[in-house]
Amino acid sequence: MSGDLLVLEGVHTHIGAYHILHGVDLRVPKGQLTMLLGRNGAGKTTTLRTIMGLWQASAGRVTFAGEDITRWPTPRIAQRGVAYVPENMGIFADLTVRENMLLAARGARHATQIDEARLQWIFTLFPAVEKFWNHPAGKLSGGQKQMLAVSRAIVEPRELLVIDEPSKGLAPAIINNMIEAFAQLKESGVTILLVEQNFNFAKRLGDTVAVMDNGTIVHAGSMQELADDEQLQHSLLGLAL
């Protein structure tokens, strides 16, 4: 697969009186996993929310599959094939795992109408979703909630997954499970844009990487190149590995 599925060109975003994004240029190649890295407060979450139309860009352009989606409302962006998993996961704690999944499967009115083959594939990625199918989502562990959040995002076919810090607060064993799941999703042809603070997580998964600082992209290239250059890591991210 070649070409860029998602492109941001000179994107500025204001939130109230605050100017958060200062001309963001970002390319997400089709069929690859792109990591968006940066220190806390660099503008990563604002970038994702701007892509999804949750916050409107005040200047610049966001293009998805060749279409200008800069002014599109969030539901239209989702219907076009973009799924978003926010940092807080956005699950409904009082509903069961099954009910959470059903809400995300817009073409189904009953759980039996969810695509069975796709559901079984999700169960292989995240066995906990099947194990706790009839349990309240609020009773799940942090890792299990994260698995449910990603499962909801992929219960219907998507072209692009936009995910904010999936490994935050998770145990190493759960992180390894998440890495394997994202690798399988990428192999299935899904394009992924992923914000991450865990650099070891990022370098194991990423094909390309963009690094943000003060509301702009300060570095873009291959993930392998950044993983191999400790001096560059330290200058961009303040890491000492």
Automatic annotation (TrEMBL):
- Molecular-function GO term, any one: ATP hydrolysis activity
Sorted UniProt keywords? Amino-acid transport, ATP-binding, Cell membrane, Membrane, Nucleotide-binding, Transport
Give any single GO term for biological process: L-amino acid transport
Q: Where do the ABC transporter domain residues begin and end?
A: 6-239
Instruction: State the SMART domains in the record.
Output: AAA (SM00382)
Q: Which Pfam families match?
A: ABC_tran
Which PROSITE patterns has this protein been placed in? Answer: ABC_TRANSPORTER_1 (PS00211), ABC_TRANSPORTER_2 (PS50893)
Q: What family name appears in the similarity comment?
A: Belongs to the ABC transporter superfamily.
Q: Quote the PANTHER family the UniProt record gives.
A: ABC TRANSPORTER ATP-BINDING PROTEIN (PTHR43820:SF2), HIGH-AFFINITY BRANCHED-CHAIN AMINO ACID TRANSPORT ATP-BINDING PROTEIN LIVF (PTHR43820)
Q: What is this protein called?
A: ABC transporter ATP-binding protein
